[in-house]
Task: inverse folding
């Protein structure tokens, strides 16, 4: 006998501490923002430290420290190739409207294509002639 899985509750699943409770420094917030602006929200990206230093205007060691802290907190996820992406749970926890949309997508019915769209549509001869006729203005 198997137990049924618990119902999905996005309010319980995607709750993380707000940013002010994580006590991030200004440099850490800037590095996190830089990663988000450069595509780290949707895919894992390589983070060129020199570019971050130039854009954020902090020391190189500060960027390395920010990456280590953000990874330790779980805000950043690092893969085997050494690329970083922003944790999806963080994004959903900081955007309640997006979290509600995601939860609705999990319980909404599947989209089924119309079977009539698969069959080629037959056009009568009169309709075909009407379409080919060019009317002068």
Result:
């Amino acid at each position: 006998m198997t137990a049924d899985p618990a119902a999905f509750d996005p309010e319980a699943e995607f709750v993380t501490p707000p940013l002010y409770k994580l006590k991030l420094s200004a440099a850490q917030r800037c590095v996190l923002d830089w990663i988000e602006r450069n595509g780290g929200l949707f895919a894992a990206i390589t983070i060129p430290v020199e570019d971050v230093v130039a854009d954020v205007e902090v020391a190189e060691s500060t960027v390395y420290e920010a990456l280590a802290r953000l990874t330790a907190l779980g805000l950043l996820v690092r893969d085997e190739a050494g690329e970083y992406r922003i944790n999806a749970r963080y994004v959903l926890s900081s955007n309640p409207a997006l979290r509600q949309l995601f939860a609705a997508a999990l319980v909404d019915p599947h989209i089924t294509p119309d079977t009539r769209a698969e069959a080629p549509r037959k056009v009568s001869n009169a309709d075909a002639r009407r379409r080919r006729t060019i009317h002068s203005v």
Strands lie at 76-78, 84-86. The helical segments are 10-13, 19-22, 26-37, 49-56, 60-73, 88-94, 96-107, 125-132.
